[in-house]
């Protein structure tokens, strides 16, 4: 039988969802009965033959999946057995290995393109297995593109680490190994390097992903593959790298790779580290025996954030490795070093628990060790530098004799951390598992029993271990834990290099639980938190008492006030809800009047007042019941005014709501206006229209309504003060909720106080705010501690219904009562004995009231009635009223909807009440018997008239009484009343528990830490209360006004309840009701315009008076601060120090000294005082010599002046006086010879060489003769007497002073600690051209070290307040400048204020300059203590500051004159000088000319003879002093008797007796004219007003001056 014919090909018609690529085989022609297929190949596992019998395949076609064939390697043989009629034939086909791999590659590409959700764990495992099969059977990858493809595929598959199981990890490691080894076989051409660099990054990222998956499923050993992959990448990165450049770093979440090529000298300069990790290696000096000499060294460092080894103990830190190699990749062994390698390894999980012990007693802390053979690191942080004896005991309390280890602190070290760190390793003691007791005792001197200090103890257990490859385990050989170990990082000191790790544990160091009671026993040592909590409880009790009193006061405010001036028989009711604003001064003491304007009429004015409670308080809501005889229809406007009386008449009305109690309709009036004579439009009367729905939903209304509601009721803290009286949430409950919230917040804060942040924690940047996950978690946990229970408490108090108080006793004695309306409407039912109090005058007023109200309702002019109190008037008034009724009936009888008809019924009740009043008065009340009966008949006649009118015209509108039927929702909303007790129980529980645990934490933390916590909680609470929460309220209000736009009204249920109590009425007239309205009162009419204008003038005067008092008080405060600041910079001890130095160094000084005298003085007085009895101190040992002293001289050049030709033979040379042009600046040798090379010390050389002012750090010096430069020829005297004497002798022998010397300066600085002053001393010896030296001592005292006492703190506070005053004056001057513009600069007082402000800020800049310059000079002295330290720059700046402050004080005192302008006498003087200024200015010029003329003459005549006239300024000063009698007459007469007497006598006669007399007469004449024409200023009236107010405070009555009319009177 012939063999079958084959065809082979790929599946060309595959479904897109089918990701498996198939190999199809088909028999072209066969007539076999049965067929059997076999696949034969070599197994990959054991290299044996493997045959697959495909029993299930019995057809002409065979479909093979490439994934199944990957188990066989090389080519595959496919056999088919065909049976036909008992005959068997075979056919075979070889499938190439390349075809299988191509099919697998297609399979991989298809699976990589799967959607994210379809990428399951099984698919990842299968794809990685296929990739592994492809790469393991092939040669090493030769093309960079192939490497990059597989690296990208691998990184993509491993991205989702949670779906990479152990099998997938193993396959990925093998793939990674193949890709990594391929780096070695590819040529590093420029194009290949780019692709290989990307591949290297992908390899490291894949390594990081594998490590992340390994951390979740640690089943496979991957360490070998990890190390090989990282090593291959490092070798690639080092290829062709130049030495001593920037390192190459690849950073991933779990792996960091670092390589660099350095010369041996640069290895130990800086530690090796990566930016995103705290791990670092620092090498010591390795030497030439380890490192190559002329060859760079390759540095390879790796950080594994996860331990890659499956064996060994768990590692709690980063695993770091460092290796050194040569450029040919030969490893440089580093082991058994004499100097240790410093390694820092951060731990991955951080937690800290430190304890605070009080050292007043011997304190013990317990430490629990859970791991053997670890190093225990103890870090002590005492509150102050102390000597401590620390003992450690195992399972028992240690003593000095019985302990495991002990040590005495402080140790040697540069920082407190090093001096108080104790490292106990296995070599120091056997660290076993168990409890250790740490005992600390301060070492004190005899007689001292305790130390007032605390200490914070942190204990850390750590290990420094490395991976030992031969043992496949971690070892600590050659490594130890260093003293710089902290809670966040371990310091390892090792003598070799390999992979290092750290086992790190932070133990919970707490005080011994058996001694927990000692926490409260040590209250005296640490009372901070306990006292703080106690103070909060006391404040709560006081606040609760205050809140209870306010609650009782609020109860009286929750009522609807029935107006006293309501008509007793007016039955149509309106409820007025008037809201006063929250602005400062919103409440009013005036009488407020209201009228309502409707479509059907206008109600009479009503006085809004309540005799039982104050009304119109700031932020208050007042309810008034206003009655009217008939409905006003649809309200259109409301009219408000007040009479501007009382101490604070201004009123800010926020809104008004009017409700018709019969129909339930509401009208809203958005007022938001001032009714005041001095604010806004200066009006006390306004008409406000009714607000529309659009007005109600406007942004401003909703925003302010929501803000006010949230602050006054919703905000738990602010509402304690501003709680609405109508709220059921009382102030006591609010205070208690605040108390609970505060204590819970304090507990949450102290629980997490001081918890360190994890350096590896991920941060979230929100603009300027950076948050870590730890901070977020702390915030969430704190919220769970604070908010849930407190929200429940607030909800219970706010929503609990009030308890109904009904007692059995009240029910048993319950009697029929009048209706609520009858009780609250102000009327009086009179008993029989009341008739004696009723008079005819009352009847007259009542009739007039009835007539007035009737006229007002009918809108008619008032009737002219007589007001005399006799019987005829009653009859007349009744007759007029009857005529008016008939007149109105005639007018309105045909008008169906006229107001007359509802008022007719009301008028009948009034007349019936009037009849009762007449009957109560009786016949005895009238003087004529017939009048009583006549009055009654007349009233009855009008009643019948009204009845007949009603019967002739039926009423369309009957008077309504009570509310229209409404749906009364009796459904009880809210919690039962007894829930309040649950709320109080929660308040007590949370407060006590929070306070108790907060006190425990505080006692544990110690005093210093407790104080810092209290400061932090105070700052946090203040920031939250005054910034965060108000901003939150405003943001919510803006959202509500812009988005929600819903108008809500609070306390609607309460107002409904109050309306029910006042809504019933009765027609029953069982008694006479006496009305209390007096229509003739003035406040029922708005104040006239003239009165308003007068009120405005008085108010303006009062405002100016208050502003003037404020200006005076502010300026006095400013002047006080200025004087404190100015004199705080000065010290009177400076004068005594200056005098002492002058007197000490002026000994041996004569009026005329030559060169030898100068050296004699220097050797005797100068050196003896400069180097006193005590080394380093001058004179008597109180002042320390700072550095050394120096001598400096200035000279003039040779032949600096010309000699007259006739004198050349007698005078060989000429030397001019000193000037800057003639100053000698040359360099010479000793003896002022020509400069050559000079042998000698530096000091002796500088004595002959000129040094500039900048080189010497000097400043120019004013002398008595000239201004000298700061440069010159210098000799430092040194710091001891012997050296200074030697140098002076050398200068004397070398003729350092000669004829060219013009001035010698001895400069030094001393510091007197007794008065804390530096004295910069300059002793000047000046020589004129004649050769004599004159002595002058200049001392400048400066305070460079600020005192630390209480006065210094007070002075700093004064400086701060002073500049606050300056800022305030800047604000005022800015307002003036904005208002006056350029006219501002024409006012001299404005310029004075501007000068004060400029000088003030200048003084601040000079003060800062002095501080900085002083610090620089002191720093220079600290660095050059044996040299002369120049403090001249500081002295100049300090002098400048003194001058500026002096001018400031001068200008401030001048401004005081401006404030005294209100004094009439002083103002008269000022006005007189202004009037006389034109004539005075001319005379001043004349006086100056004459003084100058006499000064010039005297200088020319006596200048060469007398000291007082040696120069023109001296002569001018002498002549000016002559006018005041200060003159030395004898010296002038001795010099020239005739000429001197002539000049002096003429000067005195002409200037004193003529010119000055005329000058004074001009002033006197102007003063007289000003007295005659003096116009009093308005400010004088203000001063009088101030005096009246001040006198009234002391009970002294002062007669006010009547205002004079401003109109001119014609004669």
Beta-strand content? 15-25%
Report the uncertain regions.
Answer: 1-20, 44-49, 503-516, 755-764, 807-836, 864-872, 954-971, 1063-1070, 1601-1611
Helix content: 40-55%
Mean pLDDT score: 75
Output the number of helix runs: 39
Whole-angstrom Rg: 53 Å
In whole angstroms, the N-to-C terminal distance is 162 Å
What would the principal axes of the Cα set say about the shape?
Answer: flat
Structural class: alpha+beta
Largest sheet: 10 strands, antiparallel
Give the number of DSSP strands: 49
Could you describe the 3D structure shown?
The chain is an alpha+beta fold and 1611 residues long. The protein contains 39 helices and 49 strands. Strands 8, 9, 12, 13, 15, 17, 20, 22, 23 and 26 form a 10-stranded antiparallel beta sheet that branches. The longest helix has 40 residues, at 1089-1128. It is flat and about 150 Å long. The N terminus and C terminus are likely disordered.
Name its key features:
single chain, 1611 residues, alpha+beta, ten-stranded antiparallel β-sheet, six-stranded antiparallel β-sheet, disordered N terminus, disordered C terminus
